[in-house]
Design a protein that fits this description.
The structure holds 2 protein chains of 2 kinds.
Chain A lengths: L2 E4 L4 E6 L2 E6 L1 H7 L2 E5 L6 E2 L4 E7 L3 E5 L4 E6 L2 H4 L2 H5 L8 E5 L11 H9 L1
Antiparallel strand pairs in A: 1-2, 2-3, 3-9, 4-6, 5-8, 6-7, 8-9
Chain B lengths: L37 H4 L35 H13 L21 H7 L2 H4 L11 H18 L3 E3 L5 H18 L8 E5 L5 H8 L3 E5 L9 H7 L4 E7 L11 H10 L3 E5 L19 E3 L20 E3 L11 E5 L2 E5 L20 H37 L4 E2 L9 E4 L10 H10 L6 E2 L9 E3 L7 H19 L4 H4 L12 H6 L9
Parallel strand pairs in B: 2-3, 2-4, 4-5, 5-6
Antiparallel strand pairs in B: 1-7, 6-7, 8-9, 10-11, 11-13, 12-13
Classes of the chains: A alpha+beta, B alpha/beta.
Chain lengths: 123, 516
């Protein structure tokens, strides 16, 4: 049973056990405007929570993607490199950025669920 | 009807409609001429110059001999000249109108600067000439250094950096060298950069090998002191702060920020791009700054962007002066010399930034500007720059939404709240300004403000010019609110080219000309 979490930096995590798929939220993709370039993390890289590990560049700005929790990157969505528009079309589906194994699942406790995130973005 | 003395009408009897429907045979519209790409004007078979063949020669290029033709079009001088002049006439320039790009200080470039920069003693010297033959040019650099140090109160200046970001790099390399000498490079890894800093600041710190730690802005658009106190520590190498910041606000806690960083053993880099707001009013030294670059192409009126090269001298505190890069000026009795060799330096230069001493032409222009204004005039420049920005802030607030309450410094920042539910975005609003004959303001920057519009009029605009600009923006804002979205989303309608597809340009850039 997977569960969806969100961070204050507008990333989503689809967590199943100690693995997570990570991307940016539909709201964030809308705010960024047309995404034109994505730099993905190297797989097998070990990251600490808060490290900047990827870059998403749109016609408006370049933003960093932070590791939402500590862990190891296990896969990156290479398809985005040739088709960055996927992030705009399907941010919380085919537009995922990377997969990771989570070192300490207790780090998930500070994150928001879908309802809390919807409230967060209303502000 | 008006007639001249021979009875011939002086104007057409029936003035034609402004020609909207007239299709010309040439494709040009009146004096706006069609201009194809250079590849279409010339061809590789043509040659614009008449060179005699070299008789009886042996090529000694060996492997370096060209294998394939380069396929560059050959052009005559008039063809090349007309091409660029025609393109330049479609461009917008500070010599044509108000250029409100925030954080860029697009001020008028006085003609006096140009006249002096063309004096042969400055324009025709070569950097490899013996130094004894360029004493006048060196004296000018010395005088410019004196003014830059007097204005900021700092202890030394490095003249060679060639732009703002180049200056940042110079300052941060001095800081890095100082930390390295203390043997702390291994543990001092973090550089604090506020969200309201210039975008090049974190890039510079990263290029110097540091880790970036972002400081959020508080509700007033300034550094959040609570977060700063929490983040400061013995692993902090430096803070890179822009003051006034990119929200157009003076960092009121700057003295405390400097103290906190210094107490933790770090250095204070100040981005001086916005010096135009505080020159002659605030002494940079008194703020606790260790290094700051000064954009001669902003504050000191030398040409900017496409108009010419930049120049970003860096002023340094006593703690950093020893690490300034070569070459630097020293006085030996009556004469001046450039110390070019690190080994011969009595200090500890971190290295060299560029082949030569910097942008001589910009030095001449900047000093001409300083001397023609004098110290009282430079102070007045800052006062008028701030006054002009606040005049626009006050007038535009009738229809547009200021990002923060209160007065601003030299630039006025708005968010896109006033466009809410109009179907018009900041980008559309900016494009509609092109139809009105204005270069758009800086948009979507700083990132801390939603749909940011950053307007910096500079002191060189008259009240009449500011009023025309404000009237135009107010009318546009009203139009957007009254539902005329199409004139925005379709804009520009009247420019030489319509809305360009910037998404496709970024996703699938075509970087080489190809026959289509």
């Amino acid at each position: 049973m997977s569960k969806l979490y969100f961070t204050e930096d507008h990333e989503w995590l689809n967590v199943d056990g100690d693995t997570a798929i990570v991307g940016i939220s539909t709201y964030a993709a809308g705010q960024l405007g047309d995404v034109v370039f994505i730099e993905l993390p190297d797989t097998s890289k070990t990251v600490a929570k808060g490290d900047d590990i990827a870059v998403v560049e749109s016609v408006k700005s370049a933003s960093e993607i932070y590791a939402p929790v500590s862990g190891t990157i296990t896969a990156a969505n290479d398809a985005l490199e040739d088709a960055p528009e996927t992030v705009n079309d399907d941010a919380q589906g085919a537009g995922w950025f990377f997969k990771m194994t989570i070192t300490d699942t207790s780090q998930l406790e500070g994150l928001m669920d879908e309802a809390a995130y919807a409230e967060f973005t209303k502000e | 009807m008006a007639m001249n003395s021979t009875g011939r009408p002086t104007a057409p009897a029936q003035p034609l409609d402004p020609g909207a429907d007239l299709q010309t045979f040439s494709g040009s519209r009146g004096l706006a001429q069609v201009e194809p790409l250079l590849h279409k004007v010339g061809s590789p078979e043509k040659c614009g110059v008449d060179l005699a063949d070299v008789p009886n020669h042996t090529a000694r290029l060996g492997n370096l001999k060209r294998q394939n033709p380069v396929d560059l079009p050959g052009l005559s001088e008039p063809e090349a000249m007309r091409h660029y002049v025609r393109l330049s006439q479609r461009n917008y320039a500070i010599d044509l109108g108000l250029y409100p790009l925030g954080s860029c200080t697009m001020k008028h470039n006085p003609r006096l600067n140009e006249k002096l920069a063309r004096l042969p003693g400055f324009a025709d010297v070569h950097p490899l000439q013996p130094q004894s033959t360029v004493q006048g040019a060196l004296a000018l650099m010395d005088e410019l250094s004196h003014w830059l140090m007097a204005i900021t109160g700092m202890d030394a200046v490095a003249l060679s950096p060639k732009a703002g970001a180049h200056g940042e790099w110079c300052g941060m390399m001095c800081i890095r060298a100082a930390i390295e000498e203390r043997g702390e490079l291994g543990k001092r890894r973090r550089v604090l950069v506020p969200q309201s800093a210039h975008g090049t600041n974190p890039a510079t710190a990263a290029a110097c090998g540091f880790d970036i730690d972002e400081l959020p802005a508080d509700a007033t658009g300034r550094v959040d002191m609570e977060v700063l106190r929490r983040k400061i520590g013995p692993d902090v190498a430096a803070i890179m702060l822009t003051n006034p910041n990119t929200c157009g606000l003076f960092e009121r806690d700057i003295r405390e920020i400097a103290d906190l960083v210094h107490e933790a053993g770090g250095y204070f880099y100040c981005d001086g791009a916005n010096l135009n707001a505080i020159m002659g009013k605030t002494r940079v030294r008194d703020l606790g700054v260790d290094a700051m670059h000064i954009n001669l192409h902003k504050t000191f009126s030398t040409p900017h962007g496409g108009g010419g090269p930049g120049a970003g001298p860096v002023v340094l505190s006593k703690r950093l002066r020893n690490y300034a890069p070569v070459p630097y000026l020293v006085r030996d009795g009556q004469s001046l010399a450039l110390v070019e060799d690190e080994a011969q330096s009595e200090a500890k230069p971190f290295g060299r930034m560029s082949a030569f001493h910097g942008q001589m032409g910009m030095f001449v222009r900047a000093l001409a500007y300083m001397m023609s204004h004098g110290s009282d005039g430079l102070r007045r420049v800052s006062e008028d720059a701030v006054l002009n920005a606040n005049y626009l802030l006050a007038r535009l607030s009738d229809e547009m939404s200021p990002a923060y309450p209160g007065v601003c410094m030299h630039e006025a920042l708005f968010d896109d709240d006033f466009l809410k539910d109009t179907g018009v975005t900041t980008l559309d609003f900016a494009k509609a300004m092109i139809d009105e004959g204005y270069h758009p303001m800086t948009m979507y920057f700083p990132l801390v403000v939603h749909g940011a519009m950053l307007i910096e009029p500079t002191e060189t605009e008259s009240k009449e010019s500011l009023d025309r600009f404000a009237d135009t923006l107010l009318a546009l804002a009203k139009a957007a609110k009254s539902g005329a979205a199409a004139r925005f989303t379709e804009a520009p309608l009247l420019a030489p080219l319509r809305r360009l597809d910037e998404t496709r340009a970024a996703r699938s850039p075509v970087l080489r000309w190809q026959e289509t």
